[in-house]
TrEMBL record:
GO terms for biological process: cell redox homeostasis. It comes from Jiangella rhizosphaerae. The record marks G33, P34 as: Contributes to redox potential value. The keyword Ribonucleoprotein does not apply. This is Thioredoxin. The record marks D26 as: Deprotonates C-terminal active site Cys. GO terms for molecular function: protein-disulfide reductase activity. InterPro entries: Thioredoxin, Thioredoxin-like_sf, Thioredoxin_CS, Thioredoxin_domain. Gene3D superfamilies: Glutaredoxin. Residues 1-107 form the Thioredoxin domain. Keywords: Disulfide bond, Electron transport, Redox-active center, Transport.
Length: 107
């Protein structure tokens, strides 16, 4: 089951855009309190299913990727499938709300 990996601008295309299954990218930063709040929730979701890959991208270390997807507020969760953004979730949410938003990808 899923371990959350960190991606960077160097491996974003390979691990996210070219993945054969949907990938949720958690755009986050060290200083972001809400980002830290949802991290354990995302780890629980990753551990409980294997249909959706979950990765983290630090926006401070990879600003070009964040800018290219117009990430202006974090935490931002984008689901990519077939190289395209198919779902966007902005802000911290409780686990039940996140699972509801991600139902098409985790069930």
């Amino acid at each position: 089951m899923g371990n959350i990996q960190h991606v960077t601008s160097a491996d974003f295309d390979e691990k996210v855009l070219q993945s054969d299954k949907p990938v949720l990218v958690d755009f986050w930063a060290e200083w972001c309190g809400p980002c830290r709040m949802i991290a354990p929730v995302l780890e629980e979701i990753a551990a409980a299913q294997d249909k959706l890959e979950i990765v983290k991208l630090n926006v401070d270390e990879n600003p070009e990727i964040a800018a290219s997807y117009r990430i202006t507020s974090i935490p931002a969760l984008n689901v990519y499938s077939g190289g395209q953004v198919v779902k966007q979730i902005v802000g911290a949410k409780p686990k039940a709300a996140l699972l509801n938003d991600l139902a098409d990808y985790v069930n």
